[in-house]
Amino acid sequence: MKMNFSSFISEADRTGCNTLLRDLQRNRPRNTKIAINLRLSKAKYSCQEGFILSGVKIRTCRAGRWKEKKDPKCSGALY
Fold this sequence. Notes:
By secondary structure, this protein is α+β, with helices and mostly antiparallel strands. The protein is built from one helix and six strands.
């Protein structure tokens, strides 16, 4: 029997994460590119050219909060 793990996530949890992810996309940190996956409740971070990412590349939302505590940042020019 194949299990569908998305059924274990409550509608309130999914809504909280969708709001968090959409807010992140609208208010991106400086010099940062973010790809959002609402279905998986994940945000993938990368930096604009000339900047270096510090922190995790992929953050996961659970129950309307980030699983990873520290915000990834893009800083410092490579040149």
